[in-house]
Write a structure and sequence with these properties.
mainly beta; 203 residues; globular; single chain; eight-stranded mixed β-barrel
């Protein structure tokens, strides 16, 4: 079946899609029980975080205060997706919030793995893959899509535990390794180490 002009608003988030195609609810449930699910597809879409008026604010803020709270938020986001979302492909879309946005050329989802084509954020162009299992290390991979004014680079970041991030970097084919341990809040790590040997920098 297909739905057009889909819009869902909840908890300050506005989600829109021009078209969603998938199985009927009964057939989808039967496929889940039998161990096989047909893929769904979503055409042009957008996700927008809507600022709440001060009168609607609560003492329990939804703000993300650092890496630890970001990882906790992503755990809560991926848990229902892993349980209920069938294999899905999405067309071009964007995520907007006050002061910024990320554009995606398209993406695919299966189990706990999200792959995207080109991602554009503040002039950076990259392909991305996110692997977010229920247990074990979470991994984010970004590989640049060089333009006439940017250099090639890549980042493979792994979080084996909530407070720890380990990354392998490559800039202009020069590798480096980084390890950072974060506190309960804040974007600056409490401890960090960067190893980069025999690097050459442009004059």
């Amino acid at each position: 079946f297909a739905l057009t002009n889909v819009r869902v608003q909840r908890n300050g988030v506005d989600v829109r899609a021009s078209r969603v195609e998938g199985e009927t609810p009964l057939r989808w449930l039967w496929q889940r029980r039998s161990g096989g699910e047909a893929p769904w597809s979503v055409s042009e879409w957008s996700v927008e975080a809507i600022p709440r008026p001060a009168s609607m604010s609560t003492t329990k803020s939804l703000a993300i205060s650092g890496w630890s709270s970001l990882r906790s938020r992503l755990d809560r986001i991926f848990a229902p997706l892993r349980t209920w979302l069938p294999p899905t492909t999405v067309g071009p879309g964007e995520v907007r919030w006050p002061g910024g946005r990320v554009q995606l050329a398209g993406a695919s989802w299966e189990r706990d793995r999200l792959r995207s084509g080109e991602v554009i954020f503040k002039g950076l162009h990259a392909a991305a893959e996110v692997v977010w299992p229920a247990e074990g290390a979470r991994t984010v991979t970004l590989r640049s899509m060089p333009t006439a004014t940017t250099e090639a680079w890549s980042v493979v970041a792994t979080s084996p535990e909530p407070s720890l991030v380990q990354a392998e970097l490559a800039i202009r084919q020069q590798p480096a390794r980084m390890s950072a341990r974060f506190g309960a809040s804040g974007w600056l790590p409490a401890e960090a180490e960067l190893k980069a040997r025999d690097w050459t920098l442009p004059a």
